[in-house]
Design brief:
β1 and β2 form a beta hairpin. The chain is 34% helix and 16% strand. The protein contains nine helices and nine strands. The protein is an alpha/beta fold. The protein starts with 22 loop residues before the first strand and ends with a helix. It has two domains: 34 residues, no CATH class; 223 residues, Alpha-Beta Complex (2-enoyl-CoA Hydratase, Chain A, domain 1). The chain binds zinc ion. The site of zinc ion has 8 residues, from loops.
Length: 279
């Protein structure tokens, strides 16, 4: 005799639902990694040490004991001085996606108890490019550092350098940020730059290259014009690893190549040495 159930059992879901951002594929070694594991390794692939690009706030949280404690220049908003087609819409779009007013953040924090001013750029927001807000924030943060005599650290992920949508106004920021560095120099305040992948164009041709100590993350592209542009201009094959951190270290352009997982420890050690005479 067969027993016939009165109700049809509920349909079973096919597999577990996994959030889209649960897994990440490493672009270098192709390993599939759980995102949660990458959080523990400062977003560095545990298998091949590939450094994933991270946001400005993420970097600040990695370096600073309690994140950014007080922001500098958060109220400054970008303008569209040239009425550049589509620029206002782009600013609105990126503001919604990243929750940032512009491509950089600046603020006060502590590294192993040492008070510092930090400046961080975010590649996601228009390639971390340098416009008027970027320049003004950098200058305000640098002058604050100089007046208060606290070290200044700039962490950069800036692909395009100057922001084309602001034309000459963005190029002027090369001079403005350089004046900010001069204020630090006059006050004899340590200035360290940390160059991420990529640090190019007007950013590298101004304040990024002026650090008392210039550190780069492994494998970061660092230079003025990119390798493709150079190759097309000089019509010659470029050497292997051209413009990558390790190449730039070998050629004296930067001082150190440091793994992101060791960055806080390295900065802390440098700051202790550099501030021992006056703090
Ligand atoms: Zn990997």
């Amino acid at each position: 005799m067969f027993f016939k159930p009165k109700k049809t059992p509920p349909k079973r879901e096919k597999g577990l639902k996994v959030p889209d951002d649960f897994w990440v594929k490493c672009p270098s070694c192709q390993s599939i990694l759980p995102n949660i594991d990458l959080e523990k390794t400062a977003k560095v692939c545990p298998k091949c040490s590939y450094h994933f690009r991270i946001s400005a706030y993420e970097y600040a949280n990695i370096l600073f004991d309690n994140g950014i404690e007080r922001e500098i220049g958060k109220e400054i908003l970008p303008d569209d001085p040239l009425d550049f087609p589509g620029y206002k819409q782009k600013l609105e779009k990126y503001k919604k996606i990243y929750g940032l007013n512009d491509s950089s953040i600046a603020g006060i924090g502590h590294i192993d108890g040492i008070k510092v001013t930090g400046f961080f750029t975010d590649f996601g927001f228009l390639g971390g490019s340098m416009g008027s807000v970027f320049g003004e924030k950098f200058y305000r943060a640098a002058t604050h550092s100089a007046k208060s005599r606290i070290p200044f650290i700039a962490v950069l992920f800036s692909g395009g350098g100057a922001r084309m949508h602001e034309g000459i106004f963005s190029l002027m920021q090369m001079a403005k940020t350089t004046v900010g560095v001069l204020e630090l120099e006059k006050a004899k305040v340590p200035y360290i730059t940390v160059l991420g992948d990529p640090t190019m164009g007007g950013v590298m041709a101004s304040f990024a290259a002026l650090g008392d100590v210039i550190i780069a993350e492994p494998g970061a592209l660092i230079g003025f014009a990119g390798p493709r542009v150079i190759q097309q201009t000089i019509r010659q094959e470029l050497p292997k690893g051209f413009q990558r951190s390790e190449f730039q270290l070998e050629h004296g352009q930067i001082d150190m190549v440091v793994d992101r997982r060791e960055m806080k420890k390295t900065l802390s050690r440098l700051l202790k040495i550099m501030t021992s005479s006056y703090l």
